[in-house]
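quick q for whoever's on today - can somebody do inverse folding on this one?? i tried earlier but teh output was garbage lol. tokens:
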């Protein structure tokens, strides 16, 4: 029999089972984003009447929810209507109107065009630094491929695009032009081809929080961004052998004097690693591998590392929100992880 308390009883049961979104909602001060969101989303519609714009913090939480699970806009609209846990996270009840997929798309496009998504990322990290969650006792640098659907282009078309030209076969077809990502590039990893971008990150060793990142097309070598990611707050820097070169070491020491480089060394022809170097590599690798936990979480728990959008501007915004959603999820875990026995 249906009763007045059915909804609250269901939510209570979800809490007992361990609702991760309830923990995330409590772990983040969502209102701290409101002043920045109000500056990004300025309404010029002063006409009387009509439905008011959705609350900006609500829409921001919807975008974070989307990145936590990698749902498309239509699927997200359906699931918000369907799941009590989603509604509770967003502060909605069964009687509230849920933003439709077109509204979600429009809000995200406004954020893309504002080019201020990274300010939201930095604002949250400022709080994590103030609370001591980010310690900067050590940092890890690495990169991962963010793929997008393969594009059926000829070799000649790819060569023209690399030169900054738009092939006539694409330019003359308006539908193909809309779906062609002129910024995405091909790369190979473990003999497998990928099309898309790279998410270059720097993470805090102790908390595994992403402290800095940069987005490039996929063919850019991982080591190209290490100097850009490093700053005065870093004391120790861990990285794999791809980042090992005398030029990189000089640039990093020029940027931060006294920076301890914990980069894994690789042997070369005629210069085999000594046993001491192998032991040192093993110690570095034990810490450096923590960055793989971040990429693994994105792949397994957050629906994968890929983008559906077209263009560098949209991709940067998507990856920024993905990194921010990861940091929020990680923060919620750190606040609620069980104490060691």
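ok took a stab at it. sequence:
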């Amino acid at each position: 029999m249906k009763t007045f308390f059915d909804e609250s009883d269901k939510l209570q049961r979800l809490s007992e089972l361990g609702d991760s979104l309830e923990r995330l909602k409590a772990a983040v001060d969502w209102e701290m984003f409101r002043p920045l969101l109000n500056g990004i989303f300025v309404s010029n519609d002063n006409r009387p009447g009509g439905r008011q714009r959705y609350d900006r913090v609500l829409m921001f939480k919807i975008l974070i929810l989307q990145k936590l699970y990698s749902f498309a806009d239509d699927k997200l609209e359906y699931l918000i209507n369907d799941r009590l846990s989603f509604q509770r996270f967003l502060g909605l009840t069964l009687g509230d109107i849920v933003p439709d997929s077109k509204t979600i798309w429009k809000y995200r496009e406004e954020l893309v065009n504002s080019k201020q998504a990274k300010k939201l990322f930095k604002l949250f990290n400022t709080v994590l630094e103030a609370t001591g969650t980010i310690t900067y006792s050590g940092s890890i640098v690495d990169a991962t491929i963010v793929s997008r659907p393969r594009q059926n282009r000829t070799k000649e078309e790819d060569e023209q695009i690399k030169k900054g030209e738009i092939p006539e076969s694409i330019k003359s077809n308006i539908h193909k032009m809309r779906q062609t990502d002129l910024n995405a590039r091909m790369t190979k990893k473990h003999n497998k081809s990928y099309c898309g971008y790279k998410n270059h990150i720097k993470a805090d060793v102790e908390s595994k929080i992403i402290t800095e990142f940069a987005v490039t097309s996929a063919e850019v070598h991982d080591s190209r961004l290490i100097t850009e990611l490093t700053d005065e707050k870093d004391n120790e820097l861990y990285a794999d052998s791809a980042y090992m070169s005398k030029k990189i070491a000089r640039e990093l020491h020029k940027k931060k004097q006294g920076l301890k480089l914990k980069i894994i060394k690789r042997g070369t022809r005629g210069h085999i690693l000594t046993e001491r170097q192998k032991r040192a590599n093993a110690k570095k690798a034990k810490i450096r591998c923590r960055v793989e936990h971040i990429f693994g979480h994105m792949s397994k728990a957050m629906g994968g590392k890929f983008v559906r959008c077209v263009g560098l501007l949209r991709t940067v915004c998507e990856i920024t929100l993905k990194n921010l959603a990861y940091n929020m999820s990680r923060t919620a875990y750190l606040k609620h992880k069980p104490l060691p026995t």
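fwiw The radius of gyration is 23 Å. also The mean pLDDT is 89. so keep that in mind when u check it
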